[in-house]
Amino acid sequence: MTYDETPKTVPPAPKVPLSKEPSPAHELTAHDRTTVGPTTGERAVLWAGFPVLGAVALWLVSRAAGWVASLPWAPMQGPFKLIASAPEPLLSIASVAVGALLGLAVAFFAEREYVTADIGPDRAALTVDGVTRTVPRAATAAVFRDGKNLVLLGHDTAELVRLCGDFDADRFAAAFERHGYPWHPDGDPYAADFRRWVAAQPDLTSAAHALFKARAHALKKGEKKDAEQLREELARLGVVVRDDKDKAQHWRLVQPAQDTDAPTE
């Protein structure tokens, strides 16, 4: 028996085109999450900068206490004379220590003003001032920045969350978009629907007008918690509220739930 020893040519395997990077909706699972908030550098500046500034400021006050106490027209003569009478080095040590502690206190409260988020394809957990609110992705129709507020709207255009605090809009936008949330870079897609509240407007119920009146009083007195609670009461009546820089209240009514995301401009 003879064998054909002529080498055979094996056809090359067909080239399979490289697939493009899958979209986040296909790529990410419920376990793939993004945490966004203040950077390590921002926190370092906060926790180191304020104590140093406080220490330096109070030390300078202690240096100037004697001079201020010598001015007959200067206010608070008593405290400045007391500071100037303290012996050294006790005065310098105490002023630096107290200033640093005051700076730490300021840093603590400033830290609580940061907005942090744990975002995934199924839900977003948003935290500010120690309070966390969780919003399902399926319920979210729009995400945007409104001044110092981070706002998420539902499919009926109602506000699911409005958080007031410090956050980097670009970093939050990237995190939300990575997980398929509809971020609106131009702000509220329903901004044109807002009207300034005026007593006895016919489109609002008497209950809504009563809440608006009480909220106007709370805003005037600077009672933020009461104003926020009254905002939530108005939301239960289907009224969305936002305030301008002069504390005037603007409102719009929620719309019927939609199957698609909020319209873009």
Please give a structural write-up.
There is one protein chain. This protein has 265 residues and is an alpha+beta fold. The protein folds into two domains: 73 residues; 138 residues, no CATH class. Helix content is 39%, strand content 18%. The chain contains seven helices and ten strands. A four-stranded antiparallel sheet has the order 1-2-3-4, with helices on one face. Strand 9 and strand 10 form a beta hairpin. Helix 2 packs across helix 3. The longest helix is centred in the first third of the chain and has 30 residues. The N and C termini lie far apart (81 Å).
Order of helices and strands: HEHHHEEEEEEHEHHEE
Number of helices: 7
The low-confidence runs, each spanning 5 or more residues with pLDDT under 50, are 1-26, 260-265
User: How would you sum up the global shape?
Assistant: flat
Number of strands: 10
The largest sheet, given as strand count, sense and whether it forms a barrel, is: 4 strands, antiparallel
How far apart the termini lie comes to 81 Å
Mean pLDDT: 86
Q: What gyration radius follows from the Cα positions, in whole Å?
A: 29 Å
Strand order of the largest sheet: 1-2-3-4
Number of domains: 2
The proportion of strand residues reads: 15-25%
Helical fraction equals 25-40%
> Structural class, please?
alpha+beta
